[in-house]
Amino acid sequence: MSDESLITKNIRESKNTNTFKGSMYINKGDFVFLNTVPNRLYIEGGYVDIDFEHSKGTYNYYIHDNQGSVRAVVDENGILVQATDYSAYGVPSSGFGSTTSDKHLHLSLEWQPMKGIYGYYNNARFRDAILAGTLYQQDPLAEKYYPFTPYHYGKDNPSKNVDILGDSVAILNFQQKKNQHIGLLVQNKDMKWEYYSVNGTNMYIPGVIFGNDYGKFSGGNKYNNIGELKFQSVQTFFDSDYNKNNYNHDEAFVIPTTLNQDRIISKTFKSEANSTYNLFMNNCATAVANSLNKAGIKTYMGNDNKIYIFKVNSYIPSRLYKDIIKHNNGQRYTK
Fold first, then answer.
1. Separation CA 314–CA 281 (nearest Å)
2. Which of 60, 122, 123, 196 lies most in the core, judged by the most C-beta atoms within 10 Å?
3. 306, 299 contact by CB (below 8 A)
4. CA R_g for the chain
C-alpha cells in the first residue's frame, strides 16, 4: 500500500471526521481538519499536507536549530516551504502567518494566538512570548531557582537556557541492531545537563557472555561518566562531538523530577559506577534503574494494573528504556 493510500485509509477510518461542522481549522490528535475535511497529518519530524479529494499527500520536514525550534520547513523535493525567525522568547518575526503555515515553532511547540495573548503551552503552563516569556502558572520546580520568580522562563536567559517542560532527567537510549546502551542526563541547579553513564564493556552485546569478548572496548569511554560533562540541553548533547564519537545516542525520554530526586539519582549513580562491572548484575541498565528507583521512579517489567510479589528490572538497555516510558509521564526526543 502506498503512503498516500495509507494516509487516506487512516483518515477514512477516523470515527469523528463528521463532528467538526462550522469550524475552519480543528486539531484532533495528529490530524488537522479544514471545514470537516482532513487537511494535515502530523508525523515524526514533520507533517503531510493532504489532498483528500485526490487521495494524495505531500511530505514536509522540519529543520531545527540547536534549541529544537523549527527554523525552516522543506517539502519532499527539498524546496523551502516556510522559514521563521524568532524574538528571544519565541515570537515568530518573519516568514509566518499564511493559512498554510505550520504552527509548530519555538522549541517545536505550537504557537497559540488567543484574543490578544500570544505564546506556547510548556506542558501544563502557558508561556506568554510577548511578555518576556512570563509563565501564567508557577514553576513546579521553583525550589531549584530561589533567586528567580516562580513565573520566570529559562532563568530569564532564553538564548542560553531551554525549559520545554520544566523537566530534569533525560533517559538516553542507543540501539543499533544488537548493540545497545542506556545512560542519563540529570539537570543540575544551574540548568546544565550532567551526563551519567556506566560504560564497562561499553555496550550490551547479546549472545556474548563468557570469555574475554564481552570485555573488549567498544562504544563509550573506558571510564564511567558521573556528571563531569555538562551540556546546555538534551539537543546540545545529541549534537556534541562527545556523543557522536562515542555511543551516538539518538533518542531520549525526559521526565519531571524534584531537586531532591536529582540529588538522589546523582548520588546513587556515582555509587553504582564505583562497583565492579558485571554483565547481568551491574551494567549500564542496572545503574540507571537502581538510581531512578532510589528516587521513586518506576522502571520494573510488567504493567501498573497488575500486582507483583517481586518487581524486577530488566538488565537489557532497550527493554529497560521501554519499561521506563511505560510507567512514567514524559516526552520523547529524537536526534
1. 10
2. 196
3. no
4. 22
* pLDDT bucket at 87, cuts 50 / 70 / 90: confident
pLDDT band at residue 9 using 50, 70 and 90 as cut-offs: very low
Q: What is the mean pLDDT of residues 28-51?
A: 80
Which pLDDT does position 143 carry in this prediction?
A: 63
Q: How many residues does the structure list for the chain?
A: 335
CA distance 28 to 20: 10
pLDDT at 259: 76
What's the one-letter identity of residue 292? L
How far is residue 265's CA from residue 272's CA, in Å, rounded to a whole number?
A: 10
Query: 100's torsion region: left (phi>0), alpha (psi -120 to 50) or beta?
Result: alpha
- Which residues have C-beta within 8 Å of that of residue 131, sequence separation ≥ 6? none
Q: 115: which residues sit within 8 A by CB, 6+ positions away?
A: none
CA-wise closest residue to 296 among 323, 334, 333, 258: 258
Q: Are 131 and 224 spatial neighbours (Cβ–Cβ below 8 Å)? A: no
Look up cell 523530577; give the residue. 257
